[in-house]
Structure formats: C-alpha cells, structure tokens
Design a protein that fits this description.
With about 450 residues, the protein is α+β, with helices and mostly antiparallel strands. It folds into 3 domains: about 5-45, no CATH class; about 60-265, Immunoglobulin-like, CATH 2.60.40.3140; about 290-450, Peptide deformylase (Peptide Deformylase, Alpha-Beta Complex), CATH 3.90.45.10. It has 8 helices and 24 strands. The protein has an 8-stranded mixed sheet with strand order 5-4-8-2-1-10-14-13, with no helix packed on it. It has a 4-stranded antiparallel sheet with strand order 9-15-11-12, with no helix packed on it. It has a 3-stranded antiparallel sheet with strand order 3-7-6, with no helix packed on it. α2 packs antiparallel against α3 and α4 (about 110-120) packs across α7 (about 310-330). The longest helix is centred in the C-terminal third of the chain and has 21 residues, at about 310-330.
Amino acid sequence: MSYDRTYVSKVASGVERGSREFARRADDAMHAGGELLRAWNDQHPADPPQRRPAPAVSDPAGALVVDHDHAELFYDAGVYRLTQRRRLVNHGAAPVTRYLIRIAVDRYPGRPERSNRHYCAHPLTWDEIDLHAWHGEGRAEAMPWTVQHDRDAFKEVWLRFENAAGQRFPLYPGSACWIEYTYTVGDDKWGNWFRRAVRHPTNHLAVTLDFPTEVDPAAWGLHTSMAGDDMPLATAIQIHEFNGRRVFSWATDDPPLHARYKMEWTFRNGRVDAPAPRPSQVMASLGVIQDGDPLLRRTAQPFDLPAEADATTRVVDDLRQAADRISKAHTFGKGMGIAAPQIGIDRAAAIAYPPGDPNPIVLLNPRIVETSDATDSQYEGCLSSFDVRCRIPRPLQIHVEHQERDGQRRITIFEKAVARLVAHEVDHLHGVLCADHLPDGEKPIPVEQYRGTGTTWQYPA
C-alpha cells in the first residue's frame, strides 16, 4: 500500500483517521470489492463530495445486518461439503430481492502460479459444486440462483428471494429471514483452509470444521487485521470428538466490519497429495494435441486466398484463444507459438509471440525459402511433447514466404530467437516435430532436468 506500517496500525486501531486514498488502497490490497471505500464514504458525509462508484446492483443489500452466521465444513472420502446458514435483517428502507454469495478455492495458497496452472487444467465446475439454496427455517422454500461471475477458481452467485414457480418473497424493511445454502468441492481443488470475510454488520459469527478422527486432524485460526497482519484468533477453538468425528468449533460476537478470519488445518494421518499432473497432461487438458496423433505428421491443408480469407480469421482467432489459455498455465520466457494442427485444425496457419510482445506474428501458408549458413543449438520445448526439451540446431536467419488474407505473398526475414520460434511453427505445418532435428546420438531430456524455464535464449551481442 506504500504506507508506513505504524500509520496503518494507528488507522486500524482508530487512533488516526485514514484518508479516502488510504481506504482506496486498502480496498485494492485486501480485494474487498469496493466495500472499504463505500464504508469510508458512508462514515464521512461532511467531507467534500466525492464521486462514488456506481453500485453493481440496485438492491439495498448494504442495509442488511447478519444477525447469525454459521458455516459448517464437513469432510469425508475426499470431498468437502459446506453448509452456510445466515439470519438476515433488513435495516434499510427498501426491500431486498437477492443476496450475493461467493465460492472461492485455492489448492495451493501462497503459490499462485501453481494454483493458476492447476485451475486452468482443472476448473471448478457447476456440476461438481452442486449448489442448493433455501429460504426460511428448516429449508422451507428452495431459492433459485443466477450466476454473476464464473471463473476457474472463483464463482459469484445471486440467490433470488423467490421460488421455482416465480413467486417472490422480498426481505422487506424491518423483516428478518433465514437463508441456507450448501455446495461441495473435492479435496483436489479445495485446499486446507477456509476463510470468512465480514461484508455486512454481523452480530454472531461461527465456524465448524467436521473431520474424520482417523485422519488425525489439527486446526488453528488466524485473524487478518486492517493492516494486513495475521494474528491468532482472540478466542480459542473448541474441540469435541464423537462417532468417529473430530469437530473444531469457533465463534465470535460483533466482529469488525471487513474483518477476515481464516481457519487452517492439516491431516496428520491423512491422504498424501496426489502427484501433480505431467506437463503433457496439462497441455492435453488445454486442448493441445499430443505427439502420436497422426494429424501432427501431415502437411497442413493450405488456404485458397483470398477466397478463404474469412476462414483464416476464424482459425487465427482459435489459435489466439488457445494461446491465451496456455499462457495462463505456464510462463514462456522465450516467447511461444502454436500451429493449427496442434489444436486439431488441419489448416496451414500458425501464430508466434516473440518474448514480451502481446501481438503475434501470423503465418498463413508459410514455407521457409532460404536459411543462413550460420546456426546455433538451443533447447526447445513443444506444446505437443511438453514433458521433454530438445537441444537442436537451427539457422540464425530464415526467409519465410507467407500470404496475407488478400492473397498477397510476402517474404519476411527473421533472425535469432524469433527465427527459431517461427521455424518451429512452420515445421508443425509440414508434419515435422522439433525432436526430428536432434543430432545423431542425442536424445530429449526430461523437463525436470531442464534449467532454462522462464529465461530467454542467449545470443552473442
């Protein structure tokens, strides 16, 4: 946040009055979704008027008070099931017609790149979540829901105060109601933590973790302050055992608005993490055809240009989307490229992104027509055989004939790293893989032995 920690601590304790800019930066740092900034504006009505961000919805959910909030996380046979019960009170002047809930998972907290790769390959799906919601005590009435955000590891859903028949039951001013919802997530996606964020004024907050005794669970909790510091919970976690279950319970009254509480645990006699998927498995899950598929060994069908100009647009768009998915799962320090046959399209198109350049080189009907005598040898990886790296020679300069969408033919000269990148993709369009260029007696090395991931190819000045 670029503020002195002492100043942050004083603001958090109420000794100092934080500025609006401080509230904005704190909101960004804590990913509070604008709630800190709105709270600051609400608490400083006499300050010069500021342009407040427009609310995302028209419902007066900001006037809600959570009288009772109880989250129960039950684990068994590799699956977590969360049941969340809340008693809501409308202290506003208008009826509330929907309520926003969030579902967020992080299998590898503190290791964002690994988590990103994991969820790109194994996104959280609505089928596995199996979300259900109810209104009223005893699950009196099922509540429909509408998706607000749908991301690989994060979902936001509006629970609607109505039933399946379309009959509405808004939460009117001065009224209270119970809502309950439940969903499931496998332990391959959940991770050993559960966080509660206080987004509305809350009178009572409780969390229960219910685990099998046989895994010998241990649990602890943390409170994240407004300054971003992790501190132990102010009250102890209670532990009870019965019927082969060990239950950890914790509760607090009148938690501060925007406070964050996190429960963490370990299974001391539990399941060992499943091995991480192989790089080739990750690429296959992202839609990249793997070595052994006959399509990779065929010469791709050329475009008849300009008659098929529209077809090139569709194929290049597919390649861009594939590259975007893949780049979220892996860091490419040397740039990256992908050819149409690698995503199952038998057409002569490829794209290549030089290192640090967001704009790809587009190659339509390309062929290498001239190469330099000078060569060098570098390691290359291929999305279609990503478990290995191959050290192969390539020319330091290549001349590539290719076409524009209007049919015009061009010859473009590429050098050094970009030449290597482009040559690799042109090979794919002619049924050639980089391992085919290995010198006699040399073999690919396992990716685990390769030490150049994330770095650029090196060339003399």
